[in-house]
Amino acid sequence: MTMDYEPGNINYQGKDSGVHRWQVDEKTTLYWHPDWLHIAEDMTGLHKRAELELEPGEQASEQHAHKAVEKLAKTLRGE
Q: What own/partner pairs with CB < 8 Å and gap ≥ 24 does 69-78 have?
């Protein structure tokens, strides 16, 4: 199934509860909410994920996040 979307056949239907809706044809409706952007970015690998280093039973904290980001940055710089 191919979907050929062109500006002329995508009709914006407005926004309800923050969700934008476009009608493509009788069968196809597209939805988007700005809060969903991080999901798309994660799925496409746009942003790297940094694994937290936790001891068993340890709760993640902001300090763990900072350490993980520092480690990732060093790796990306080749250090």
A: 72/48, 76/48
Q: Residue 49: which of 30, 21, 72, 25 has the closest Cα?
A: 72
Amino acid identity, position 41? E
CA distance 70 to 4: 43
Distance CA 69, CA 33 (A): 28
Q: In sequence order, what are the residues at sequence separation of 6 or more whose Cβ sits closer than 8 angstroms to the Cβ of residue 17?
A: none
| Each residue's pLDDT tens digit, 22-64 | 998 888 888 888 888 888 787 787 777 778 999 999 999 999 9
Map residue 70 onto helix, strand or coil.
Answer: helix
